[in-house]
């Protein structure tokens, strides 16, 4: 493992916020994981790629993260159509690996920043696919007892951008490996409306098209830090949806999530409220997508929170809808 003292976390969170941590530990193999219960306590923080974390202060403790590649070369273990993957691997590298090896099912999750471990904690989703669709089991280490435990997909309690691993505030279980069951034939998943008309003859074409589409809506990480979608799409009951629909006939169709609830587009609400392209301090609302807050250069976490609060208050006042952040504020 690698241990750094008093180091900046700027390169460890996609917003690029320059706070410091007392100690940073990078775990590189199973022996390091076995030591995790000693290293990690309630003053520690586990980071994936930091793609959903906004730091508002220096971190007074130990930040623990995983190397992208496992030191022993066993980042991916294959058994037929099943892959068991080290939590630190970058999700997008895994998607390309699967296509290079004739395995399908992850292509719609192309270009999602973040690691495999974070992808299950968050149940990441995009373009009609979610991590939960292909995850069959998750191996964790219990930080209190050192026990290794495996949860089936069902036991992970996956929901919209959440799972059992996100439910507890104090991290007790650390995701170490994720097992995916993939397909050896490619069947394009075109369920998401925005994919209509995109090239999809091969999975690689689909991946390339989705990657290109994503980059029309999100800032390039090398130019501007961001956390992807900053807010979750709000889920409201039918009465609320119908009220808004009659007031705003131009509102995009909501997705029905169960018998009584609908998921609205937070991006549209924020856009309609007039926030697209606005800036406050060194943080802005991305001009191509109102759901994304971005770093104009050198922003602090407090500036991100100030803009997010202003947007939440305004959307609440204009539409009566409470937005909640997808990102975790620390
Ligand atoms: N819209 C606007 N103005 C905007 C942004 C969006 O009017 O500024 C409208 C769009 O025209 C569209 C609707 O809102 O009618 C929905 O937009 P889009 O299809 O781009 O998707 P989204 O709801 O904004 C979600 C996920 C993204 C994911 C895309 C594609 C959430 C919070 N966001 O965004 O996930 O990539 O769908 O599947 O669920 C992420 O979680 O970080 C993320 C990027």
Fraction of residues in H or I helices? 10-25%
Write down the CATH topology of the largest domain. Uridine Diphospho-n-acetylenolpyruvylglucosamine Reductase, domain 3
Taken as a percent bin, the fraction of beta residues is: 15-25%
Give the names of the bound compounds: uridine-diphosphate-2(N-acetylglucosaminyl) butyric acid
Please tell me the total number of domains.
Answer: 3
Low-confidence stretches: none
Total count of helical runs of at least 4 residues: 8
Question: What is the general shape?
Answer: globular
C-alpha termini separation: 25 Å
Instruction: Kindly report the spatial arrangement of strands forming the biggest sheet.
Output: 6-7-12-10-11
Describe the biggest sheet? 5 strands, antiparallel
What number is the mean pLDDT?
93
| Helix/strand order, N-terminal first | EEHEEEEEHHEEEEHEHEHEEHEEEHE
Q: What is the radius of gyration computed over CA atoms, rounded to a whole number of angstroms?
A: 20 Å
CATH architecture of the largest domain: 2-Layer Sandwich
The helix/strand class is alpha+beta
Which short descriptors sum up this protein?
Uridine Diphospho-n-acetylenolpyruvylglucosamine Reductase, domain 3; Uridine Diphospho-n-acetylenolpyruvylglucosamine Reductase, domain 1; five-stranded antiparallel beta sheet; binds uridine-diphosphate-2(N-acetylglucosaminyl) butyric acid; alpha+beta; 330 residues
Describe the structure in your own words.
With 330 residues, the chain is α+β, with helices and mostly antiparallel strands. The protein has 3 domains: 2-66, Uridine Diphospho-n-acetylenolpyruvylglucosamine Reductase, domain 2, CATH 3.30.43; 76-209, Uridine Diphospho-n-acetylenolpyruvylglucosamine Reductase, domain 3 (2-Layer Sandwich), CATH 3.30.465.10; 220-329, Alpha-Beta Complex (Uridine Diphospho-n-acetylenolpyruvylglucosamine Reductase, domain 1). 25% of the residues lie in helices and 24% in strands. The two termini are 25 Å apart. The structure holds uridine-diphosphate-2(N-acetylglucosaminyl) butyric acid (EPU).
């Amino acid at each position: 493992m690698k241990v750094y003292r008093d180091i900046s976390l700027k390169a460890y969170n996609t917003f690029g916020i320059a706070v410091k941590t007392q100690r940073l530990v990078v775990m590189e193999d199973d022996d390091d994981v076995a030591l995790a219960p000693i290293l990690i306590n309630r003053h520690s923080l586990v980071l994936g790629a930091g793609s959903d974390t906004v730091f508002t202060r220096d971190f007074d403790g130990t930040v623990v993260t995983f190397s992208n590649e496992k030191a022993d070369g066993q980042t991916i273990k294959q058994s037929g159509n099943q892959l068991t993957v080290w939590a630190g691997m970058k999700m997008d590298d895994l998607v390309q690996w699967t296509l290079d090896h004739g395995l399908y099912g992850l292509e719609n999750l192309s270009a999602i920043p973040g690691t495999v471990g974070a992808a299950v904690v968050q149940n990441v989703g995009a373009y009609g696919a979610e991590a939960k669709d292909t995850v069959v089991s998750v191996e964790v280490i219990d930080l209190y007892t050192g026990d290794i435990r495996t949860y089936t997909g069902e036991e992970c309690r996956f929901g919209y951008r959440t799972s059992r691993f996100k439910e507890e505030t104090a991290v007790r279980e650390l995701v170490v490996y994720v097992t995916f069951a993939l397909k050896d034939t490619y069947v394009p998943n075109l369920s998401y409306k925005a994919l209509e008309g995109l090239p999809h003859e091969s999975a690689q074409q689909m991946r390339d098209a989705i990657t290109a589409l994503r980059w029309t809506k999100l800032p390039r990480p090398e130019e501007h830090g961001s956390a992807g979608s900053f807010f979750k799409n709000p889920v409201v009951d039918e009465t609320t949806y119908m009220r808004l629909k009659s007031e705003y006939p131009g509102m995009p169709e909501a997705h029905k999530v169960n018998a009584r609830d609908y998921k609205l587009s937070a991006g549209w609400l924020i856009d309609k409220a007039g926030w697209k392209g606005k800036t406050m301090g060194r943080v802005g609302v991305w001009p191509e997508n109102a759901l994304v807050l971005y770093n104009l250069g050198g922003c602090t976490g407090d500036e991100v929170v100030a803009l997010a609060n202003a947007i939440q208050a305004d959307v609440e006042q204009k539409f009566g809808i409470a937005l909640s952040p997808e990102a975790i504020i620390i």
